[in-house]
Amino acid sequence: MEAIGPGVTLYQSGDEVFGLLPFPAGHGAYAEHVVAPTRVFVPKPPSLSHIQAASLPLAGLTALQALVDTAGIGTGSRVLITAAAGGVGHLAVQIAKAYGAYVIGLASAGAVDFVASLGADEVIDYTTTDFAEVVSDLDVVFDLIGRDYPAKALQVLRPGGSLVSSLPQSLPAVAADAAARGIRLAELLVEADRLGMTVLAELAGRGALTPTIAATFPLEQAGEAQAYRVSSGKVVLIP
């Protein structure tokens, strides 16, 4: 934190913090400096580098708000996470495990070992196996892909289960089937959330949540960074 305004009591200049700026409108973070309300930030855990901390708020809050706030997972919940090696997915696996869930992750062949290393109880190579044919009786599916995945998710969820999607445009097509099966559909758009950031910081501080950095780019290469595709982890811009 470079400087604080009048009336700020939470922090002092020089404090190391991280957080999600008000989203989706109002602020942008592709910059060397930003001005933001102090209460969107929390102290950075010493265990995280600044690059790791920068990668965590948007993706981590997406996973936390989907799995904990929306789906209400807990000990023994059976959870399937699509794109489990990706920026949101690899954090979702760790968060679900930290809350005591039984986690099944979908990943490509090259990322199976990575997802297993995050603590997933089962990892399915979606390039060779249709998950709808090998899993059942799930409490939650967290879908980060869309396409035909919501329809398949309904086949493996128990009545009363939840399908949470970060791609809400994929849900209307399955709404009638979900209602007939007694399955809850939930659309998620992540919000800035200091309480959620506190949870992420606590998990990271005790080693239960570690972001994986796939690549870094200088700020002037923001366009290239946005277009860069990785199979696992997060891409971070460095001012």
Considering the chains and any ligands shown, give keywords for the structure.
ER; GroES-like_sf; alpha/beta; 2 domains; NAD(P)-bd_dom_sf; 8 helices; oxidoreductase activity; two-stranded antiparallel sheet; Rossmann fold; six-stranded parallel beta sheet; 239 residues; Synaptic vesicle membrane protein VAT-1-like protein; Quinone Oxidoreductase, Chain A, domain 1
Description:
- The strands form 3 sheets. The chain has a 6-stranded parallel sheet, sandwiched between helices. The chain has a two-stranded antiparallel ribbon with strand order 1-2.
- The mean pLDDT is 96.
- Helix 2 crosses helix 3 (89-98).
- 41% of the residues are buried.
- The chain contains 8 helices and 10 strands.
- The protein has 2 domains: 17-58 and 192-237, Medium-chain alcohol dehydrogenases, catalytic domain (Quinone Oxidoreductase, Chain A, domain 1, Alpha-Beta Complex), CATH 3.90.180.10; 68-187, 3-Layer(aba) Sandwich (Rossmann fold).
- The two termini are 15 Å apart.
- It is globular and about 55 Å long.
- The protein is of the alpha/beta class and 239 residues long.
- The longest helix has 14 residues, at 57-70.
- Helix 8 (222-227) links the parallel strand 9 and strand 10 (234-238).
